[in-house]
Amino acid sequence: MAYGGEVSKDVPRRQWQDLVERYPNKVINVQNLHTVQSLVGPSLNTLPVEWWYALYRKEDLYLFCNEDLRYRTADSMSDVSDFLGLPSFDFNDVVNAGPYNVGDHTGCNIITTWNSTSTAPSSDGIPISDELRKEYMDFVKPYNERLFELAGKRCNW
Fold first, then answer.
1. Confidence band (pLDDT; 50, 70, 90) for 75?
2. CA 111 – CA 100 distance, rounded (Å)
3. What is the mean pLDDT of residues 34-52?
4. Could you tell me if 121 and 139 lie in one domain?
5. What's the pTM value of the predicted model, to 2 decimals?
6. Does 133 lie in the same domain as 120?
7. Per-residue confidence (pLDDT) for residue 69, from 0 to 100
8. Is 147 helix (H, G, I), strand (E, B) or coil?
9. Quick one: which of 59, 31, 36, 61 has its CA closest to 48?
10. Domain that includes residue 5, residue range
11. How far apart are CA 61 and CA 85, in angstroms?
12. CA distance 67 to 138
């Protein structure tokens, strides 16, 4: 399980054990653990990335914004290829054919046309109030700033 198993009734996830030990008078009361794991957890990208930077030299790591793969696909692929020291390759023909493994299509040999993919963020997800959205964005902002500082680049979120 990606988030670790339950340790006890007071510690719902293994990686939170350290927090409970460091702050024994605090309570981790997760009303909706699924929401925390699916929305908040993945938004804290800097936490696992900081471990990578602790283990490896900054020059050996390459981070890119996922949105760049959608909106600057060929350039992003070239940037990754250059970082890896691979020979130059023109990704435009591959990119112009369409994205692979998108939506209900699985497998690397199935191309989906760009016209059938959404170019805008989905708005049909979980509806949340403007107030909650602001609270969430205020919460993740310092984590995002740490990530941008580590990566030496900013993402559009």
1. very high
2. 5
3. 78
4. no
5. 0.60
6. no
7. 83
8. helix
9. 61
10. 1-30
11. 13
12. 21
